[in-house]
């Protein structure tokens, strides 16, 4: 309801305004006139005609969530604004990025996939041919294994860090394409094969080895994302998608699959994406993403304006299957309550969890911990330090904590409780 | 593009299909020992087509796409494995590599491979419990990876510009800077896979699994 003093656009004003513009020859149709007067948000939208239909929609001018870019470079990343999003699906234009040599421009008509190696019939597929195969669509998360790397070092634990900067290398989409198993069935895998090498058509020629068992089980040659063709940043026109695996293995701009009897030990699976454990060994092919959860609200830099009822919200996911439970603590980890899980709870996908919280206005720390269908429970950071040492760079899936101060200010971490 | 064959496949086709299934079963049995993926029971893949999620009326083969010629495979099959498979003919010495490095690599990796601004390449200091740097000299487990990576992705702004001889040469130089090969070393398809990298035995297969009470 408009307030009494709101200056309505009167019919006379409308006629005067449009008449003047019509006289100037700028408005030739009623549509032109409506577009003209609807440019700015009216004080009372019931008194002004709205905008017309459009071929491509856009967000409300005041709703402009953005990916976070740290350092623009050929090898760089951008992070999904998790705190701005609802539900589980990430809008495709906000899906996180990680490129190792920029985003190549590839024409759909020109792109080809070579499948060869230990196969009966090495074959080349054009995109139009791949799209003719039986199609699958799966809602799955994708997470870079470097996600959360900024909150593992005991000496450099930040407090003023957003959930986007912390865990924004996580997104969820409905991926559409052809099952890798369909294509491997087509070419005929030879006895003795146990791995595949996936290779991208970017100028990093990104290459990763993936167990044959995995790609046969549930990997997708994806050409669709959230109902549209996959975007260039996500590998247009074709990417490998390995559900539950570290993001780097889901090779974008996929141009070649070689079936082999051993991993190729490419740069990104030896000198990168490996985990020194603190006992002199380095864990290699750590491909599965362990179960994890993160509270997206409230999180830094939000300030709770008042005590009372708040709903703690967040996301949980596991590379090993379905999330079965998320617990929330509002007293620094002493007591835990089951959070409500918003269905459907899908295999290797994010789940939205919610927990109603009556904040008494005092200092406290809130945490979440996820359990997946294998029974695995998201560990504490101390448990990970104990198991892996303190110097690994990937797979930091430990429990995230947010401290709520009496002022309502929310900062990252356990604070004095660590 | 031929028409999809119908379900009444001949005996030979069925034989091939069952052979493929057996292959997958063997592969999965092998993988359950070594990979980090979940176990797949043989029952899940012991049936063709429908077991892989295809409709019951799916043909044994759709025959979309075309068979890849040997030339086509040879043109694109550019990866290099630790056993040397994939290495091309050619050779290069430490001395030749110094010139290549100083022209193509020095801007990003520095005069001695330690200055950056991009990845540090050189550190011959070996580590105990945890690495402080992750360089070719103290972290890369296989020398062949250098060929695979440099041929594909380096130099960053002009990838693929180096000849096979030049790639071998610059690898020889980088290995020499890391005190892994002597100054008179020459790299080729025989000598490169034979290089034993200091960090080779540090690498172990992922042993993480799901389950209650397990943190790895």
What does this structure look like?
The complex is a heterodimer of chains A (418) and B (216). Chain A folds into 3 domains: 11-47, no CATH class; 70-283, Alpha-Beta Complex (Sulfite Oxidase, Chain A, domain 2); 292-417, Immunoglobulin-like, CATH 2.60.40. Helix content of chain A is 13%, strand content 30%. Chain A has 7 helices and 24 strands. The N and C termini of chain A lie far apart (51 Å). Chain B is mainly alpha-helical and 216 residues long. Chain B has helices spanning 11-34, 42-45, 70-76, 94-104, 106-109, 144-153, 164-177, 191-194, and strands spanning 66-67, 91-93, 186-188, 203-205. In chain B, helix 4 crosses helix 7. The chains are: A alpha+beta (418), B mainly alpha (216). At the A-B interface, strand 4, strand 5, helix 5, helix 6 and strand 13 of A face helix 1, strand 1, helix 3, helix 6 and strand 4 of B.
| Widest sheet: strand ordering of chain B | 2-3
Strand runs of chain A, count = 24
Shape of chain A: globular
**Radius of gyration of chain B, rounded?**
23 Å
What's the overall average pLDDT of chain A, rounded? 92
The oligomeric state of the chains shown is: heterodimer
Beta strand count of chain B: 4
Number of helices of chain B: 8
The biggest beta sheet of chain A reads:
5 strands, mixed
Précis, in short:
With 418 residues, chain A is α+β, with helices and mostly antiparallel strands.
């Amino acid at each position: 309801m408009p307030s009494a003093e709101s200056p309505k656009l009167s019919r006379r004003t409308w006629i005067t305004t449009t008449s003047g513009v019509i006289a100037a020859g700028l408005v030739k149709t009623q549509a032109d006139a409506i577009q003209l007067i609807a440019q700015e948000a009216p004080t009372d939208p019931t008194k002004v005609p709205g905008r017309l239909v459009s071929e491509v929609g856009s967000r409300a001018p005041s709703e402009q969530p953005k990916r976070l870019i740290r350092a623009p470079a050929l090898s760089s990343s951008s992070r999904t604004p998790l705190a701005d999003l609802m539900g589980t699906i990430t809008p495709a234009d906000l899906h996180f990025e990680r490129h190792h040599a920029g985003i190549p421009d590839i024409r759909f008509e020109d792109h080809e996939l070579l499948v060869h190696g230990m196969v009966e019939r090495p074959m080349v597929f054009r995109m139009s041919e791949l799209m003719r195969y039986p199609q699958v669509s799966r809602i799955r998360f994708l997470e870079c294994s470097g996600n959360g790397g900024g909150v593992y070092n005991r000496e450099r634990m930040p407090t003023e860090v957003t959930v986007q900067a912390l865990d924004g290398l996580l997104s969820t989409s409905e991926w559409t394409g052809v099952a890798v198993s369909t294509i491997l069935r087509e070419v005929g895998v030879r006895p003795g094969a146990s791995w595949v090498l996936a290779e991208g058509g970017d100028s990093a020629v990104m290459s990763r080895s993936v167990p044959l068992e995995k790609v046969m089980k549930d990997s997708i040659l994806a050409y669709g994302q959230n109902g549209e063709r996959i975007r260039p940043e996500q590998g247009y026109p074709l990417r490998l998608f390995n559900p539950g695996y570290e993001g780097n293995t889901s090779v974008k701009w996929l141009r070649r699959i070689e079936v082999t009897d051993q991993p190729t030990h490419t740069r990104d699976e030896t000198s990168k994406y490996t985990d020194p454990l603190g006992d002199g060994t380095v864990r290699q092919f750590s491909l599965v993403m362990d179960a994890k959860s993160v509270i997206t609200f409230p999180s830094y830099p939000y300030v709770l304006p008042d005590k009372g009822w708040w709903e703690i919200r967040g996301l949980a996911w596991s590379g090993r299957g379905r999330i079965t439970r998320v617990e929330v603590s509002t007293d620094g980890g002493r007591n835990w309550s089951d959070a409500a899980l918003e269905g459907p709870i899908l295999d290797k996908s994010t789940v939205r969890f919610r927990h109603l919280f009556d904040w008494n206005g005092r200092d406290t720390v809130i945490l979440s911990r996820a359990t997946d269908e294998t029974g695995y429970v998201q560990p504490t950071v101390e448990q990970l330090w104990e198991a892996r040492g303190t110097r690994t760079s990937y797979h930091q899936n430990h429990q995230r904590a947010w401290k709520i101060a009496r002022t309502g200010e929310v900062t990252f971490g356990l604070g004095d409780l660590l | 593009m031929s028409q999809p064959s119908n379900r009444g496949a001949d005996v030979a086709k069925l034989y091939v299909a069952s052979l493929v299934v057996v292959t997958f079963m063997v592969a999965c049995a092998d993988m359950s020992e070594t990979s980090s993926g979940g176990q797949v029971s043989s029952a899940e893949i012991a049936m063709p087509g429908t077991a892989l999620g295809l409709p019951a009326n799916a043909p044994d083969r759709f025959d979309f796409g075309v068979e890849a010629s040997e030339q086509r495979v040879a043109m694109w099959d550019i990866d290099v494995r630790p056993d040397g498979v994939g290495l091309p003919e050619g050779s290069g010495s430490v001395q030749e590599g110094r010139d290549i490095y100083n022209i193509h690599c020095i801007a990003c990796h520095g005069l001695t491979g330690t200055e950056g601004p991009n990845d540090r390449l050189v550190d011959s200091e070996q580590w105990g419990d945890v690495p402080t740097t992750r360089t070719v000299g103290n972290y890369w487990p296989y020398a062949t990876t250098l060929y695979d990576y440099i041929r594909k992705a380096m130099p960053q702004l002009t990838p693929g510009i180096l000849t096979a001889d030049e790639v071998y040469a610059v690898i020889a130089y980088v290995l020499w800077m890391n005190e892994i090969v002597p100054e008179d070393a020459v790299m080729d398809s025989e000598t490169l896979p034979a290089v034993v990298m200091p960090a080779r035995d540090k690498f172990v297969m992922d042993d993480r699994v799901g389950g209650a009470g397990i943190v790895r």
